[in-house]
Here is the input.
Amino acid sequence: MNIKEDEYLREKEKLKKTRQYMEQEIKESEERLERGFEDYDFDDYADDYMKAALKDRFTSRIRTLKLMKPKPYFARVDFVEDGSEKRDAFYLGKTFVTDHETLEQIVVDWRAPIADLYYEGRLGEAEYDCPAGIIKGDIKLKRQYFFEEDGELQDVMDIDITTNDEMLQPFLSANSDTRLKNIIATIQSEQNKIIRADMWKPLIVQGVAGSGKTTIALHRIAYLIYNYEKRFYPEEFLIIAPNKFFLNYISNVLPDLGVDRVGQMTYEEIAFEVIGKEFEIDDPNKKLAFIIKNQKSEKEEKIAEMIESTSKLKSSIRFKNMIDEYIFEIEKRFIPDKDFIVNDHIFMDKNKLHYLFTVEYGDLPLCRRVEEISKHLYNSISMQSGKLLKEYDEECEYQIAKAKFKFPNIEEQQLEIRRIYNERDEKIKAITKDAKKKTQQFFKENKVLEPLDYYKDFLYNYLEIIAKNRLTDEEIHYIQNAFHQVQKNKKIEMEDIAPLMYLKCMIHGVKTKFELKHIVIDEAQDFSEFQFYVFKKIVKSNSLTILGDLSQGIYYYRGTQNWQKTMGVVFGEDTDLEYLTLKKTYRTTEEIMNMANKVISHLIEKLNCSLGEPVMKNGAPVTIQNFESQDEMIQHIISRLTELESKGLRNIAIIGKTVEDCEQLRKLIPRDDIHIISDKDSEYSGGVSIVPSYLSKGLEFDAVLITDADIYHYSKSEVDTKLLYVCMTRAMNTLDIYHIDELTDLLQ
Here is the structure.
């Protein structure tokens, strides 16, 4: 503690009063819930809806206040605005606290503009941006508060910068269950820039392993919802996570940030919602497992090369452009090449129809264009019916005049005149009665297909024509045959999802419960140009937050290799996008990160990204051990697990390169409590697990044991380099590396 005793006592009194305000609001809110909202003046139609909304709001507020009450704030910043002598003290917390009588802000929400002074400013001259404009002044004090779990004030510290690396150590020393799940008090300047970046610019974040990308993404969502709450619903924000592990993590963190109802989906889930149908997806790791197979025959090597080249193609904007050519062919036959005629009358000629379809409504999905043109046709009938009525009346009068000369008998004249009037009335009735039917029939010549049917038509009937001179016959036939093989099992491949989503967008349009306004994509290095382009189509803007690490891009054959190149293709070279980096890693010790950097440095120039800068110091040395046999290695692993568990390390991973390697390890280690993590698992419950290398990405463990780190399992290829880097950076405190054959060159 670096403040005086009398100041400390004043802080304790402030804390006591703050909790009293919170208790008072909780009490009043609970009483309001108990009374109901009968005394509120609602319109009848909105009565039930508004009562339900108020109930949710009060319930959520009570839950937040109770959750925050033990630690109502974490920092304080004192600021004197230019032109004023008043020194204002702002206490920052996860949520605001207000004196309802004076309306004084007792605690300011960390997402409020003024909180930027704490995260970005240093003592002395500073400024912050708010709706009223830029406010300048002087920061007189920055203070941090530390609490015991029971809410007792543990420590108070005056600082200049927000938090330096040394001050972060207590936060980083926790185990993998709790560490860095709440970073509000320790947000660094580079993290703060990401959280508060412009919502409407594409934001690309390149962050090294363990830099807290996922946590920062969640705080960005919380920040955006807070600052745009009057314009958007939380449901209009979506987080796309790579798997169920991430979704479980997110579901635990977001409520703690006071965020409810934000969409959280895997890529497959959002794809199914967009397409409107669920498909069984062929195991996305099957290709990777084949590519990283340790020793392949010459035939298998050629197949692996074909898998890589065709997967890259189907994931690219090139492939999207080919589909655009196919859609143009659909478009040409989508609207009939004829005039719209009802009862021998041309209500709209084919040139006007073509103009409406290709120009006036050219930006809409094809089905939407048909709907809009149908309205035009129907309205055209209504508008022209008056003109037709006049024409029919004139024709009617002419026919009556003829009848009077033709039939001298009065009775015969009356019969003929009645027939003429009836014929006129029937013509008018037929036009108005059949208008809708005629309009619908006009477009029935081209039946609208499902996205999968269009995709099959494209692959089997158009690809050879469209891709002529762009692809080899071998590539075309491989794409067709591979699709045919998975379709025989009623499946699709991961690379087929973006084309299907795109066809849905372009032909049918996207209909979801809420129109999405912003999408956050985590582990984005595994996403392709085509996928990013589809997300852009879904939000109908550039409002995307994209976070990833190129060093962990193990799905290189369908993912992103270069942020600038990919985003230039997706958004256009002239688009104003923001590119930020996170270089510091908060997960692994200095010893582990330095060793991991040694591995990834073989690729770092190609990837055009930075090495990780470890914040955690003084960890255990990384051990690399050679064994004479597999039995000797297994016996060491068994004793090592016992040793680590005796030290209190709870979450331990044994990482093999492939599923087959992991299954072999499981057979040889005689413990019933060890589980092999598969891509079907939705949560990690702790303990000792055996993990295939490519499924370890995104996870973290107190200790990691990597087996078979030899030249046969981990060559200097791009994918092997990234895989070994991923495996190593899963470890927080302890990393053991084992090999039987010669050690991989990546660690030499």
